[in-house]
Write a structure and sequence with these properties.
Length: 540
Amino acid sequence: MIVEKFLTAFVSETPFSSGSGVAMLTGVLAVLIGVLGFRYLVKKYFGKDASRTPIFSEKNLSKPFAGVETDEKIRNAVLKQGFSIEKVPSDLDAIFIGSGIGSLSAACFLAKAGKKVLVLEQHDRAGGCCHTFTEKGFEFDTGIHYVGNEGPGQPDRILMDQLTGGRLHWDKLDDVYDVVKLGTGKDQKTFEIKSGSRQIWENALIEKFPDEADAIRKFTAAYKPIHTSFFYVGMVKFLPYWLMKVVISLGIIDWVTDYNKWNNICVRDFINGLTTNKDLRLVLQYLFGDYGTLPDKASIPILSLIHGHYWKNGAFYPRGGASEIPFHVIQEIQKADGAVLVRAKVQSILLDAAEKKAIGVRVEKGSKTYDIHAPKIISGAGFRNTFEKLLPKPVSMRLNRVQEVKTKVTPSASAFQAFFGFNGSQEELKLPKHNTWFYSTNEDPAITMKSYLNMTREEALSADPPFVFIAFPSTKDSTYVERHPNKICCTVVSVSNYDWFQEWSSSQATKRGDEYESVKNTMGQRLLDMVLDLFPQLQV
């Protein structure tokens, strides 16, 4: 049963250990929080009243693979359902702004709990970073490059099965799921990141850094206490709201976990404290591109948890491409009489007369606007868009917590993403079923990235970026060749400075002029040259 699998995961993470009375008390409090949270979860979704909120069902566990739907009319009816006021369901319980995976997941679970939901997306297709597009016969993904913990029976897979009705399947990448390329020319070094277990991951690095075995083991050893701390904080979120407030206000979290201690250690400081070896420092923190924050600004848990979730079962890619995720999630929402509508730009969030409560949204469609009401408004548009654009400025200014966050949290680094298509077969080109992370130097990436980002646009046009991520989605998806034979797609991501493109921010995407196209193509050509250098078999 699903309950048993979650319970097994819960029991295996309890932090009991022998030691002082304080340690024992800490363990008891931690288990108490976990049991209360878990009991509340089970009672709410599996207890006597579960028929009212059948969010989890064994009927939704992974079903036999039925192939990928290729009929564009059927796919568009799900992913590209255009907004009209007639398509808005009546008696809405919740409205979601944005159709990224966060909004879609929350909307799907509310729909399964019997709530009627509406998801509004300003783009021409739903899915956020899960959407794909096809250009000249090549299908490209935009944000899903690999996901861990999607093996059969794993909790994350069970969660995804519930979201997708068990119809989404996953293809496993190679055991070596990431490769780090460090340096250029004949001095370039290669480091393979290998899955299978924590020990396999460690040994692959120790083989390259035999004198740094202690540092590598200390790095991986941090995963368990970090994971345990985050596990119990997660369980607190399952508590009734009033009890959660008590737990937080009394500081019980700090009694029973080291959550805040770990969160106050940045990636760079933690790794620099383990080793002075610059190559190893870089290799331990290479995947900061996955979470979009430089190592001097990110806390160590985000890096450790991402590494750890690939260790045991490796990395996976959605079979049929990234758009299969929203394609199946949206169908679950539609089954519950909900709707996901695109080309629906939310102009503002509507408030009650006292400006204390959100009561709806105003949607802009052409020259008209439509007010749509619901008791719950959930924004997936991001912190700044929500509080600086969608809510009235006087309201946001009154929210002290919002002002505090605005002073401390700045936007993440921008990214430059390029998509390349190559004619040829996988058998002929022998491209890897893993990601490649290229770094031109082993110097502190926080410094090298900032140095590049501080360049003027003209300087950047004459410089190679210090980092690129390269992936071939067509090799990861076992069905790709059936849909797009002899078409190899390549996705490349690097850092960018928003200021380099700010002058075109208010112009239409396809009408930005020759200078914009020249800048974009020059940067794109540099990335293509780097790809061809690393994968010479792609040379014409």
